[in-house]
Amino acid sequence: MLCDRVRMDSYYNAVFDNKHHFDGKIVLDVGTGSGILAIWAGQAGARKVYQVEATKMSEHPRELVKANNLQDVVEVIEGSIEDVTLPEKVDVIISEWMGYFLLRESMFDSVICARDRWLKPTGVMYPSNARMWLAPMRSRLAGQKMSDYEGAMGDWLCFSDETKTYYGVDMSVLTKPFSEEQKKYYLQSCAVVGC
Ligand SMILES: C[S@@+](CC[C@H](N)C(=O)[O-])C[C@H]1O[C@@H](n2cnc3c(N)ncnc32)[C@H](O)[C@@H]1O
């Protein structure tokens, strides 16, 4: 995220163009990582910011908070958002949880859990909504996957024939489940490709 200018600018502008949402308010940064979102919330006037980070990465935001003189406002809490207990409910939840195709990285559920546990009924979410754009497409990757699948099935049939011939065991009854497994976990699974 830190190297993604578009994303950084979007969060920065969202916070500082909506200072009234942060000024004097209690904020929660879910999965704080480097901690920059919490620091912006503090700079925008938040009364208190809780940064929750599941990993040992939490040592870095702690240092960053001190270096930016926000130690009286921003508090780092190490633990997963599903387990930690905050001292109070919050007015704002900010989080950078989006992955490839929005949902990859599986953080969405954690943000929803944070909302249900800790957001005041009058509270706001940053971001509050998202759009997913879908379009059918054809790529050479699909053809490649199909030929890999056919190759795997060819290998299986050879294996099955040889096992019968050399080892006296008929494996052909497993051909259908093998094919279904290949389809489910390889052929029909998503491919993440760069543009
Ligand atoms: C995409 S990064 C966020 C980047 C962050 N905004 C920054 O400025 O570096 C997601 C972070 O959330 C943390 N995380 C993921 N699931 C979590 C959970 N359930 N509770 C707390 N932290 C979580 C990860 O360890 C990771 O540091």
Automatic annotation (TrEMBL):
PANTHER family: PROTEIN ARGININE N-METHYLTRANSFERASE, PROTEIN ARGININE N-METHYLTRANSFERASE PRMT10. GO terms for biological process: methylation. InterPro entries: Arg_MeTrfase (IPR025799), SAM-dependent_MTases_sf (IPR029063). Coiled coil: none annotated. Pfam families: PrmA. It comes from Actinidia chinensis var. chinensis (Chinese soft-hair kiwi). The keyword Methyltransferase applies. Transmembrane segments: none annotated. GO terms for molecular function: histone methyltransferase activity; protein-arginine N-methyltransferase activity. This is Protein arginine N-methyltransferase. It comes from the Eukaryota. GO terms for cellular component: nucleus. Keywords: Methyltransferase, S-adenosyl-L-methionine, Transferase.
